[in-house]
Amino acid sequence: MINISELRIGNILHPDEKDNTIVATVRAIDENRISFYEHSPVSPTQVSAVSLSALWLTGYSFLYSQEHNSWKKGSMILTTTSEGFLFSLGDHAQSLEYVHQLQNLYFALFNENLEVQLDQEAAHEEVELAADSVMVNYLPKDKQSNAFSFNLSVEGRVYNVSYRKDQQGYWCFSSYSEVSQEIAP
Asked: Which of 33, 118, 176, 181 could be disulfide-bonded to 161 (CB atoms 3.0-4.6 Å)?
């Protein structure tokens, strides 16, 4: 369970503690509800933390040094440990297990938010994964349809995603395009 006092707007969480495949960005917080850009508001007991991993660090533009077994972004260095990641500065050391902990520490140190910088291939995979997880909710009622599309929000951005039937009659992700940069709060 996450202590609500650890959270801030912009943190990445699992909006449903039972489904760790979905992540969402916190839009608003109060004592009874956490609101997300991409999902319905939930009580704080319904969310779970997103585990910090090499994939997240890469997405946040940290560079890995095999020689030092560490990740670096600017002057921030995280050492890889068996339990996760360790940030050290002088006599202070802080273990980081979750994405929101890294986001909060980075903001405290540099007064700016960490932004995911996905390359085109990674962005395509993220949009496709998110679309595949909800596409059944948008299937056309007309069984003769060979294509459909819908809007999807991922990481605060809105995309129009398209599906087409393959030769066997299965729906396959075919393309996406960004509709807008940011979702209005």
From this structure: 176
Tokens of 41: 């508001």
Q: Tell me which long-range contacts 2-9 makes (C-beta under 8 A, separation of at least 24).
A: 2/44, 2/47, 2/48, 2/49, 2/100, 4/29, 4/31, 4/34, 4/44, 6/100, 6/101, 6/104, 7/34, 7/100, 8/100, 8/103, 8/104, 8/107
Domain assignment of residue 131, given as a range: 120-180
What is the pTM (predicted TM-score) of this model?
Answer: 0.65
Q: Are residues 42 and 74 in the same domain?
A: no
Is residue 159 helix, strand or coil?
strand
Res. 180: pLDDT tops 60: no
What sign does the dihedral 157-71-14-119 (CA atoms) show?
Answer: positive
Indicate if 124 and 167 belong to the same structural domain.
yes
| Tally of domains in the chain | 3
More confident residue, 17 or 103: 103
